[in-house]
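Action item from last meeting closed. Structure (96 res):
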C-alpha cells in the first residue's frame, strides 16, 4: 500500500472527498475539525492536502477565490482498497 495511507488525516480527507464530489479546502478542514472535535493547524492541514495532490490522489482547481479539491480515480482506488482491507479485519476479528 502506498505511503500516502500512513496518515489517518490523509485517509480522512480522501473519505470526505469521496462522500462529496468536490469540496473547498475550508469545508474539508471544518468537517475534519468537527469529526476530530479539535482545531487543526492550517499549516499541517494544507501540507496533507498538498501531499495528496503531489501523489496524484487528489486534484485541485481554483474557483473564484477558492481552491476546490476532488478525489482522483487513483485516490478512489486506494481508498476502496483500504476500505476492503479494513472490512476484512473487522470480519476476522471478534467484536462481540
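Sequence:
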Amino acid at each position: 500500500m502506498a505511503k500516502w495511507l500512513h496518515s489517518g488525516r490523509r485517509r480522512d480527507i480522501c473519505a470526505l472527498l469521496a462522500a462529496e464530489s468536490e469540496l473547498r479546502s475550508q469545508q474539508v478542514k471544518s468537517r475534519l475539525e468537527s469529526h476530530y472535535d479539535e482545531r487543526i493547524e492550517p499549516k499541517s492541514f494544507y501540507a496533507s492536502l498538498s501531499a495528496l495532490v503531489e501523489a496524484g490522489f487528489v486534484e485541485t482547481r481554483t474557483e473564484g477565490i477558492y481552491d476546490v479539491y476532488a478525489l482522483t480515480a487513483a485516490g478512489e482506488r486506494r481508498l476502496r482498497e483500504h476500505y476492503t482491507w479494513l472490512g476484512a479485519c473487522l470480519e476476522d476479528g471478534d467484536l462481540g
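Note appended to the action item: The longest helix spans residues 73-92.
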